[in-house]
Specification:
two-stranded antiparallel sheet; 4 helices; 23% helix
C-alpha cells in the first residue's frame, strides 16, 4: 500500500488500496504505517501485555461487547476522516449491536481504546494520539507503558491519571474492570 506523498487520499481511496503485510492508519489524507520502522514494531513485552489485556477484558465484559485486537476505527478528527488502529478496542453492544456482523472497520467511537507504547515511541507521542481519540469521540483511552509498568487513563474532561501497582482501574465508565496494573504485568510475565 504505497502512495505518492504529494497526493491526498479520500477515506474511500484509502480503503480501496491493496492490502499488504504492513498495518496502515489513515491520517490527514495519507496512509501512514502504524509502526514506522523495525525499532517500533511490537516486541515481546508489547505482545504479551496485549494478549493479557485481551483475556482480562474478555473476562470482565463477556457478552457485553467486543474486545478486538488491531481493529481500525472510522473516526472524524475535527472535520477530517481519521482511521487509527489501536492495539485493543472495547465497544459495547449498546454502541454497536451484537448482531452487527460486517468485515470492516469499527463504524462507531468505542468506549475504550488501548495503546501500548512500543520501543521507539515516546509517551508524549502516544499521549497526543490519546487526546486525538478523545476529541474524536472515544470515551476513554489507556496508554500502557511496559517499562514503567503503568496504565495512564485519559478522559475527555479530566487530567490523565497514571496508575501502577494495586491501583484500581475500574471507574464509572468501566465498572466491570476487576484487575490492577500489577495483575496485567504479572499475568504477562514481565513483573
Amino acid at each position: 500500500m504505497v502512495q505518492s506523498s504529494n497526493q491526498r487520499l479520500t477515506l474511500e481511496e484509502f480503503l480501496a488500496l491493496p492490502e499488504d503485510d504492513i498495518t496502515y492508519e489513515f491520517v490527514n489524507g495519507e496512509a501512514i504505517p502504524k509502526y514506522k520502522n523495525d525499532e517500533m514494531s511490537p516486541k515481546f513485552f508489547h505482545s504479551t501485555v496485549q494478549k493479557t489485556l485481551l483475556l482480562l477484558l474478555d473476562q470482565c465484559f463477556h457478552n457485553q461487547g467486543r474486545i478486538v485486537v488491531e481493529w481500525a476505527i472510522k473516526l472524524k478528527l475535527q472535520t477530517q476522516d481519521w482511521m487509527p488502529v489501536p492495539d485493543l478496542t472495547y465497544v459495547s453492544y449498546q454502541r454497536l449491536p451484537a448482531d452487527w456482523l460486517l468485515d470492516e472497520a469499527c463504524p462507531v467511537a468505542p468506549e475504550l481504546v488501548i495503546e501500548i507504547i512500543s520501543p521507539g515511541q515516546t509517551f508524549g507521542e502516544i499521549a497526543e494520539k490519546a487526546t486525538d481519540y478523545l476529541k474524536a469521540g472515544v470515551s476513554c483511552v489507556w496508554v500502557i507503558d511496559t517499562r514503567a509498568k503503568t496504565v495512564t487513563i485519559f478522559y475527555p474532561n479530566t487530567p490523565p491519571q497514571t496508575k501502577r501497582g494495586n491501583a484500581n482501574l475500574a471507574d464509572s465508565l468501566l465498572e466491570g474492570i476487576l484487575f490492577t496494573p500489577q495483575d496485567i504485568f504479572q499475568q504477562a510475565g514481565i513483573l
